[in-house]
Each structure stands twice: as C-alpha cells, then as structure tokens.
Design a protein that fits this description.
By secondary structure, the chain is an alpha/beta fold. The protein has 34 helices and 23 strands. α26 links the parallel β17 and β18. The longest helix is centred in the middle third of the chain and has 39 residues.
Length: 962
C-alpha cells in the first residue's frame, strides 16, 4: 500500500529533516542520475572509492538529529533571551550605533550583498568595489591620510599589522616598539602576542615620553583610554626625526570633529569603523580601517581597491597591487591576511554616504554635546572628570563608591566601564539621550540635574574641545557623500550597485577551495536579533549568558565533528586561525624547552596563507615536493623531516589536498612528523569533504582551523566576514589564545590574544549553530557525500573536453577537481583568464584560476547545487571548449574572438559590429542564458594600467560616464 498523507506516521509528517533537503541541491532522482553518470552503484560505493578506509570514522557523528527551521529558531531565541541588553557606556572601541534601516534591510540582510565572493573577478563585482572605494575615501578623508586599504579584521590586529609594517619601512636599527599606556588593553594584548613571535621588544610609557625611547616605531592612541584628546603633532615630529614610524589609533566618529592624525604628521592611522552603523555584536564582525602615506603603498597589509580602465577606456575598479598578497609572495608577503571585512566596511561606507558630511557632523556633535553636558554636571557637583579635553569619553574618580556606582548603574539599565577600583569611565554614543545624561548625573552625584541649563552653558562655550584640536579641513566632499540622503535615493543607489555584482542569488559560484554553498535565510535571521547584536564584548559576563550558552553548544558541536579536545572561537578569519594554530604549537614547544624548534614543512601545493602565517610566527619555511599525481612526495617529506629533526616545529598540510584528492598516505605523513617531535597543523579549508566521514583528529592532526564561512555556512560577504576557530588536541589546549579583558575559563589562563574580542566575531556564530542544529549528524554527513558526488559528476562530464589534472587511487576526486588549460593555451593562446571572463557571458562566476597549479581551473560545486545548475555550468564549459576549437581550427582569429573580447557588456551590442562572431554568440551563447541574463557592467579590465597608475580614492562622477 502506498503511503499517503492520511496513512503516513506522524514522525514522517513532521518533516524534522526537511531542512536537509532544502540545503542539499540534488533530489533523490538527480542523485541517482549523477551516480549512474559517474559509474558508482551507490553513494556508499562512491565514498568507499574516494576516502581511504584507514581514516573513516567508525561511528556516526555524536550529534542530535535534525531540527526543523522553526524549532531551531525558537530554541536559539530562548537562548538569546538569556542575554541582558543594557545601554552601554563601556566604550573601549565598541559603541552603540543606529544602523540606518535602509542599510540594514538592503545590505546586511540582503543575499545580493552577503553571498558574493572576494572581488577577484572585478568585471562582475563593480558594485562592491565602488562601495569599498567609498569606504577607502571615507577613511582617507577622516584620517587625513593619502591611502587606505579596504579594511582589516579588527582594531587590535590592525595595530599589530601597523607594528609589523613599521618594522618593514623604518630606517631605525632598533628592535623596540613603543606602545602608549593609553592604548586599549585588548589592543596591547594582541600586539604583545605578535611582538613576542617577531622577537620585538615592547616599550610602554606615557605618550609624552615616547620620543625619549630608541624605537623603530610607536603606537599612540588618540583619544586615549581616559578619553583625553591631545595634539600629537610635536611628539610625532620628534619620533619621526629619530627614524621611527608612528601609528595613531583613532576613532572615525571623533575624527569628524577632531584634528586628524594625517594633519598631525602620523605615518599610519588605524582603528575600528564599528560605530558607523555596525552593531557591537559581542565583539564583531567589524571592519578595521588602516590608512597610511602614499610612499608606503607597497608595504600596506590587506587589500586595496584601485581605479583602472576597461577595454573600452571606461573607468573600472579592481583590487590593486595583488602582487603584494600572500597567494603570490607566500612567506615574503606583507601579511597572511586573505580576507577583509567587506560586508561591514560596505555598511560603514554606506553609513557615511547616507548621512553625508553634515549628517556626520550633527551625529558627532550630538555625541560630544552629551559628554560635555555630563562633564559640566559632574564638575558642578565637585566630581570634575580626570580628562578635561575629550570627544565622547569621561573618566571619573568615584573612590570607595566605585562598586556601588557600577551596580547602581546596572540596576538603572546602564553598563559603565570599571577603569580601576577608584575610577569609572563613561563613553557616549549616538544611541544615548539627554534623559540618559540626567539619569546618570543623578546616579553619580545624588543630585537632580537641569540638563537644559547645563546644555546652554556648554553651548555658550562651544563644547569641550580646544580650538587647536578642532578639525578645520573639509571632509567627505566627493559627490557620492552628498547625493543620497533621502531613503528613496539611497535605496536606488544600493540597488544600482547590487545589480553590478554576481552573487549566489544569481547562479552557482564554483570556486575551488572556497566552498560557496547555501547561506540559508533561517541561519541568517538571528544575526540581527538585538539580544545578539547589541551586547558589548566586555559587558558583565552575567549579562551574556545566552551568548556563552550558544558558544558552548557550538563548541561541543565542533568538538564532535573534529574529534578534538578543545575549540578556540577567537580567530576571526581562516588566516587568523592558521596563526592561532601555529602560535599554540610554538607555545607548546617553548613550554618543553624546545625553543629551537622553528622549522615548518609546507607542501608546495599549500595555500599561500600557510607560508605567510609561518613567517608571522617566526618559523622557517621548508618546502616539500609533490609527486606527479599531486600528492605530497612522502620520500621528500621523510628526508626533510629527518634533515630538520632536531628543529622541526610542524607540518602545515591541507586535507583533502589542495589538489582535490584524499591522499592515501596521510596517516604515514602525520606519523613521520610526530616521530621527529613535530606537530601537524591541518588547514581546514577543505573540511567540507571531511564532515561525518573522517575528522582531523582521526587523521592524525594536532590542531586545525575551521572556516566557518566555508564548511559551516557563514556567508563570504563579498570578501569577509569570516571565522576561523581552531580545534586542538588535549596537549595543545593549554596554549590556545585567551583574553586580558574578559578571560575565558580553561587550561589556557594567561595566554595572549590573537583578536580584539574574546570570541572573535561572535555575532555571526549563530549562523553555524543554526546550520548544524538544522542538519543534525546525519544531514552533515549527507552534505559531505553529495559535495563529493557533485565534484565527481563535474569531473566525469568535463574530462572528455578538459583533462582533469589529479585524481585519487581509484580515479576519484574529492569535493573539487582541477582541469588543465595549459595544452589549450599552448595550442591557440586561450588562457584560463580568457575562459574565466567568457564564463561571465554565460552568467557564471569563474572557478579558481591558476591555483594551486598555474594554468589550471579548480572547480568546487558544493552540495547545495542541483543537477540542473551543475548541468548549466557544465554545458557552458563544453560550449566554451567548442568555441576554443573554432579558434584552434582557424575559423576565428586568435585575437578577435568571443574569448579574447569577453566579457561582453551591453555597450558591445550597440552600434556597428565588425567581429567574426554574431551579437547573439557574444551575449547569448546558449539558449537558456537569455532567461536570466547577467550583464557585466564593464568590459575586461586592464590590470597593468591600474597598478601603473595607482589611484585608490573616489574618482569624479563623470569618469563613470566616459
């Protein structure tokens, strides 16, 4: 008897596993069809041919079953409800902010913005690139500098990067770096960690004494911890006269009204853009800004957006100076950073666009006014603040009453900063009101305050900033900051930019090693709940019990999946996870007296971040060869492990390999490293092929990072945010990162931090929590199996047209495959770049080019793509191969053909047409393309022109019309 809705058991009708089928693309029928195509009798048979039996898990993942979307959301909502949201005056680089709703709904909550990838294919990323150029221009204007990058991970890591950059460009022979006592403690924590690895000496002192020290660089904070704002001009001049490079940590909102670091003569300005419309989120994600002088442009860490031209001479944007980056220069790179905080930088830039210079002055002026009224009221009550010159922050001596003041404030709904046993701090922001000032004055002084009278007195004096510290130069004068101040105009501007970008809401993005899978709506919803969004990272811990419960639950999930004893959530990118993992290894060796262990073995197929990270940890990189099948050359590995046995620190290895193969010798490789006293670091970029089938601990790794923005569904956000937690074996757990401001319980007490907040970018962790909860153990395993099936299906269908470079012992690939373009290029001059650009005409983002093998394309379809979408991509690739055949046969000229002219914009189809192929062949090469046509907004961009004529600020509006 067939089962009907009337006869099915209730357990079936409840559809508790419905989300699994919504996350995984292929239906049961499509799955069977693909199995038939690849010649596998079943999924189990395919996995048996792909994953070495020796590393298979012996039991299912110890995770609960799948939960329906509404059940998981309700459960997480109950957990979030255990957080207590107070009005925060803690400050310390984190402030309440009002995200304009037009930006909240149309950027942060919009998959057109959050599902895009890093803009390596610039022709289909012009909207994001323009938004980032706006951000750079905003930072340049507010800091008074000449060049800004497109954001870093957080303020503390930006300060550590500034220290490293100072060493690169300083002419001083000193090994010491000065740190202002007024610097945020979390920044000092991260800088200490980085300095220890580099072997730098840190010199601490009051800023006024910095010029007395013999240092290669200095980090000054303005405003400082107390809120004091100072004119650092003379001090900076004195430091630079001695060859020091000076970095100033500052506040973008303060810079609206305060004399800029650039005007004071600083070499570097850095800080957080969080308060420009990005919620506190218990610490992140937030875009850090980093600006410097033009003379240092080739030494800047991170990404820079630059202006170039396309094939028609039209202004076009791209990522500039990529030859500085870690994927090119490896251990010689400026930094290991391979992501920035694009989505958050975009939000901050749009905040400035929406409010404009006048709006920002009003917001900053109101914040300053509230602080000034508070200072006036305190002074009249005999409690004058310690700092007399300020923007938004006051430091107040409260003596023996400090504990009572803090608890009374909490009872009234406010969190103040406990500076020390006798002092509190109050940092005002745009969410505060005159009523808050009145309440706080009553609380602190015991007297009712006439806020209107205090306001009149402050206004008569025109605030609390001395004239010498007030900003007098223009800011945000570019038309983009003066054109979109109504919601209608802003909405249309955001939509116009979104239309220029190809994201997952349009078609699959098959980037190898990047895992561009579904970011489900149910996973994204909790991010903007106020219970998660509006918590300060240093709020009293009893107010963050919901966060701690959610993080603890996710910690348990990840331990079950990886097999590790401990998880650190602090690293806020994959590259930061690498750094944290190697740091734990380095600390472990040091704890055993093995300070000399500094050799890091890295296969030549490794991610570029791996050698760059090893360099950041002061390790010496020794490359290991790969054999003709793309596997680690075990003989070479053993020889080098033996050669460096006494000094071997670790091996960095990716599994499955970067070549898209489950290497059968992986256990032997790990055992070899351990036999020589080394540790195994596993790069988790390819963990989407492991979950439920094997695990890093099972394989033999000691530590591994997990890209939550790959395997566990946090969206890539156009190039960030990300999260890179690490899993550690028990013997390494005592050496993972901790935090000086908000210590985390565990065996790692006292260990230095790697990121500004204890739990990194905590506000996006609910995404991964929801994904795991809704998939359950069986769903996660099924996702891995289908990811491997989808990759083998693509490899099988394409191998008759493009050679597949590497496969495993049974001819199978893992979750991705590499196809070879080198023979095609040799025969007719068509390169992997030409194919990438031509794919845009078919409506697809290109796979990963020339990595890890030059002249190849690496394809990763993920489990979320249906057979129909895979077939569209495959058909496009086969059609392109047929076009190449016409060039090879001489039917089309080697330089005048659809691939060399790709991508085709609408401008190409207007007017005269003198090409040997038709307009239809150019823009609609297959019948289905027209159904959902994506038009690149520019033609192919001239990379060389952009680097030779580096321009990284907003260009005149008429340049886009040329």
């Amino acid at each position: 008897m067939s089962i009907t809705p009337f006869s099915a058991p209730l357990s079936t009708l409840e559809q508790r596993d419905a989300f699994i089928h919504r996350h995984i693309g292929p239906s049961e029928a499509e799955t069977q069809a693909m199995l038939d195509a690849v010649g596998a009798a079943s999924i189990d048979a395919l996995i048996g041919q792909t994953v070495p039996p020796a590393i298979r898990l012996s039991a299912p993942l110890p995770l609960a079953g799948a939960k329906p979307e509404h059940v998981a959301l309700a459960e997480l909502k109950a957990i979030a409800g255990k957080n207590v949201v107070k009005k925060s005056l803690i400050g310390m680089g984190y402030y309440g902010t009002l995200t304009p709703n037009v930006i909240l709904r149309n950027v942060l909550e919009n998959p057109g913005w959050y599902t895009a990838y890093t803009p390596y294919q610039a022709e289909i990323a012009q909207g994001r690139l323009e938004a980032l150029l706006n951000y750079q221009q905003m930072v340049i204007d507010l800091t008074g500098m000449e060049l800004a990058n497109a954001s870093l991970l957080d303020e503390a890591t930006a300060a550590a990067e500034a220290m490293a950059m100072a060493r690169r460009v300083s002419r001083s022979k000193s090994n010491a770096f000065f740190v202002d006592n007024a610097t945020w403690p979390q920044t000092v924590d991260v800088v200490r960690t980085r300095a220890a690895l580099f072997g730098f000496e840190l010199v601490f002192g009051n800023a006024a004494d910095a010029a007395q020290a013999d240092v290669f660089g200095a980090l000054l904070q303005n405003p400082g911890q107390s809120g004091e704002v100072a004119d650092l001009t003379d001090l900076i001049t004195a430091l630079k006269a001695k060859g020091a490079v000076v970095a100033v940590a500052c506040d973008l909102m303060a810079q609206v009204l305060v004399k800029s670091p650039g005007e004071m003569g600083a070499d570097i300005a850095l800080g957080s853009a969080q308060r420009l419309g990005v919620p506190m989120g218990f610490g992140g994600p937030h875009a850090a800004f980093f600006a410097t002088r033009d003379a240092h442009k080739r030494s800047v860490p991170g990404r820079i957006i630059g202006v170039s031209v396309d094939a028609r001479g039209k202004t076009a944007l791209r990522m500039a100076l990529q030859t500085r980056e870690q994927h090119i220069r490896r251990e010689k790179a400026n930094s290991n950073i391979c992501t920035s905080q694009v989505l958050l930088a975009n939000m901050a830039g749009f905040y400035a666009v929406y409010h404009g210079p006048d709006g920002l002055r009003t917001i900053a002026g109101r914040i300053h006014r509230l602080a000034a009224i508070m200072a006036e009221g305190l002074t009249r009550a005999g409690m004058a603040p310690v700092n007399r010159s300020f923007f938004d922050t006051l430091t107040v001596t409260t003596g023996e009453a400090t504990a009572n003041v803090l608890s009374a404030a909490v009872a009234a709904g406010y969190n103040l900063r406990r500076v020390d046993a006798n002092t509190v701090g109050l940092a005002f922001d745009e969410t505060h009101t005159a009523d808050d000032v009145a309440t706080l004055l009553q609380l602190l002084t015991g007297q009712a305050a006439d806020v209107a009278a205090l306001d009149a007195a402050v206004a008569e004096r025109a605030g609390a900033l001395p004239d010498a510290l007030r900003r007098t130069d223009a800011i945000l004068s570019h038309p983009v900051f003066n054109s979109h101040h109504t919601e209608h105009e802003m909405l249309r501007y955001l939509k116009r930019l979104q239309n220029k970008d190809l994201a997952l809401d349009h078609s699959m993005i098959s980037l190898g090693s990047c895992t561009m899978k579904l970011n489900a709506t149910a996973e994204m919803i909790p991010v903007t709940w106020p219970e998660f969004a509006n918590i300060h990272p240093f709020a009293p811990i009893d107010q963050a019990q919901g966060y701690l419960e959610m993080i603890g639950s996710l910690d348990a999930y990840l331990r079950a999946i990886t097999g590790f004893a401990a998880i650190s959530m602090q690293p806020n990118s994959g590259a930061q996870g690498e750094y944290a993992g190697l740091l734990a290894i380095s600390r472990y060796h040091d704890s055993r007296g093995d300070h000399h262990r500094d050799i890091c073995l890295i296969p030549k197929s490794a991610h570029g971040t791996n050698p760059a990270t090893a360099q950041m940890c002061n390790m010496k990189v020794v490359a290991v060869e790969c054999d003709e099948n793309g596997n680690v050359d075990v003989a070479d590995l053993k020889a080098k492990a033996e050669q460096h046995s006494a000094n071997l620190a670790c091996l960095m290895i990716t599994y499955p390999s970067t070549h898209g193969v489950f290497e059968a010798a992986i256990r032997e490789i790990c055992d070899t490293i351990h036999a020589h006293g080394g540790q195994v670091y596993m790069d988790g970029a390819n963990m989407n092929a492991q979950v439920g089938l094997t695990s890093p601990a099972t394989i033999g790794a000691d530590v591994s990072h997990m890209n939550l923005h790959k395997t566990f569904c946090i969206p890539h956000g156009g190039g960030g945010p990300g999260m890179g937690p690490i899993g550690l074996a028990a013997h390494l757990a005592p050496f993972m990162a901790n935090h000086v401001v908000q210590p985390i319980d565990g065996p790692h007490a006292g260990q230095g931090a790697v990121s500004a907040a204890p739990y990194g970018s905590a506000s996006i962790l609910p995404i991964s929590w929801m994904y795991i909860a809704m998939m359950g153990g069986d769903g996660l395993k099924r996702a891995t199996e289908i990811a491997i099936l989808n990759a083998n299906y693509i490899a099988t269908r394409l191998k008759g047209h493009y050679p597949v470079v590497y496969s495993g012992e049974n001819g199978r690939v893992a979750h991705e495959c590499i196809i070879d373009i080198r023979q095609i290029k040799a025969a007719c001059g068509v390169s992997e770049v030409d194919i990438a650009k031509r794919l845009m005409d078919y409506g697809f983002h290109a796979p990963t080019m020339s990595f890890p093998v030059a002249g190849t394309i690496m394809i990763e379809p993920t489990e979320s793509e249906s057979q129909a979408e895979l077939d569209r991509f495959i058909d496009a690739m086969i059609s392109i191969r047929a076009e190449i055949a016409k060039i090879d046969a001489g039917q089309w000229d080697a330089e005048n053909n659809p691939l060399k002219h790709a991508p085709h914009s609408q401008a190409d189809l207007i007017g005269e047409w003198d090409r040997p192929y038709t307009r239809e062949e150019a823009a609609f090469p297959l019948a289905w393309v027209g159904e959902n046509k994506f038009w690149p907004s520019v033609n192919r961009i001239d990379d060389v022109y952009g680097d030779r004529n580096l321009f990284c600020a907003c260009v005149p509006m008429d340049a886009y019309e040329s």
